[in-house]
Amino acid sequence: MALSSTPIFLFCTLSYLLLSSAQTCSNYTFASNTVFSSCSDLPYLHAYLHWNYFPSTRQAAIAYRASQNYNGWIAWAINPTGAGMVGSQALVAFHNTNGSMTAYPTSITSYNPSMLPGDLSFQVSNISAEYTNNEMAIFALVGPLNETSVDHVWQAGSSVSNDIPQMH
Question: Where does the DOMON domain lie (predicted)?
Fold first, then answer.
C-alpha cells in the first residue's frame, strides 16, 4: 500500500493524513505507555501511523501498528526514491523463534526481497516492537531526511520462517 506525501519529511505527510482520515486511533494507548501527539488511520490493512514531529531536527518519532496474528509480520517503510514497494527502506516486526518481538530495518530491493536486517539510506534509531490484543506495533526515531517529498508504504504477511518474514 502506498501514499504520496509533500515537503518536509513526515510533517506535511502526516498533517495531510491526519486531516483526511477518520480519527479512530487518536485515543489509543500503547502497552509501553508511549504517547504521540498525532495519528492517522491508514486506508488499508487495519493499520495506523502515530507520530511526534520535531521540526528543528527534521525527525519523527513514529509508531506503526496493524492488526496481525501471532505468527505474522508487519512492515512500514519510506521510499525516498520513488513510489511503491521497490526502493523502500523498511522497518519490520515479528515474533522470533524464542517468542519475543523482533524489529529491525531492511531495504526492499525487489519484489522478492531478502527481508534480512540491513542498513537504510537514512538514519533510524530506537527501533522496538510490541504485540498487544492481536496488533503489532513498530516504534522508531526516523530522520533527518533531506528529501522534499517521500512515499510511505506498509505491508503485512502471515508467516515467518527461521526468523525471516516470508512473502505476503
Answer: 45-168
